[in-house]
Amino acid sequence: MEAYKKEFIDFMVDCQVLKFGDFTLKSGRKSPFFMNAGAYVTGTQLMKLGEYYATAIHENFGDDFDVLFGPAYKGIPLSVATTIAYAKLYGKEIRYCSNRKEVKDHGDTGILLGSKMKDGDRVVMIEDVTTSGKSMEETVPIVKAQGDVEIIGLMVSLNRMEVGLGGEKSALDEIKEKYGFEARAIVSMAEVVEALYNKPVNGAVLIDDALKARIDEYYEQYGAKEV
User: Fold this and answer.
1) Are strands 200-201 and 204-205 parallel, antiparallel or unpaired?
2) How far apart are CA 154 and CA 69, in angstroms?
3) Helix (H, G, I), strand (E, B) or coil at 75
């Protein structure tokens, strides 16, 4: 596992973004783990988060893109933090863009925040986590409506590795199949388990034998088939 991935897992735990216990997801599934990117709240946390995203985007998609699009609402700070980090780490000026939930009809009108998109732009999309892939049904048409732009990829922080809307493949694999662009994650849940299983973090073991068994049971029911 790359060093930045292990560091990111520890970072999620330290920020109380990744938690273990009993959670009911928006999908209705009962999950033994939960990730909430809304728990990144300080300047230092957002700075580091942007750097992890920038590193993962650089490693997976390279630097040949123009715009980083973060869907409202959580994607807005993610896109801003990551464009700042990209300039710092790689010396490349990426423009950030996000959407509003409602179209603004005065002042800075339209549905977009940040940079407008223009013909020929290459776009990377950024989200916190995609469980079912449903958010892309709203977001992809918004981006495509801005002109002759190319979406080259989606980056999320955690691949939950569970079935998407189709009930077999993971949400990230379904996105690739449906829209034609790669969907990647900074880390997968398998990597989280590898990093934390029976290994103490700040003096505590977060994934012990009992929790590991519950995670395994969850994936027996909801785990995605490998493609």
Assistant:
1) antiparallel
2) 9
3) helix
pLDDT tens per residue across span 53-82: 999 999 999 999 999 999 988 899 999 999
Q: Calculate the dihedral angle through the C-alpha atoms of 48, 53, 59, 62, rounding to the nearest 10 degrees.
A: -120
Which CA distances in Å does 45 have to 13, 41, 63, 152? 12, 7, 24, 27
Stated as kind and residue range, the H or E segment containing 191 is: helix 189-196
CA distance 199 to 204: 8
Catalytic machinery residues: 104, 106
If 0-12 CB within 10 Å is exposed, 13-18 middle and 19+ buried, where does residue 148 land? exposed
Strands (E), 28-169: 30-35, 67-70, 95-104, 110-114, 122-126, 150-159
The residues, ordered by sequence, that sit 6+ positions from 145 with a Cβ below 8 Å of its Cβ are none
DSSP β-bridge partners for residue 101:
none
Q: For 27-46, how does the pLDDT look when each residue is reduced to its tens digit (9 = 90+)?
A: 788 999 999 988 999 999 99
- The Cα 191–Cα 187 span in angstroms is 6
Asked whether 122 and 150 are in contact (CB, 8 A), the reply is yes
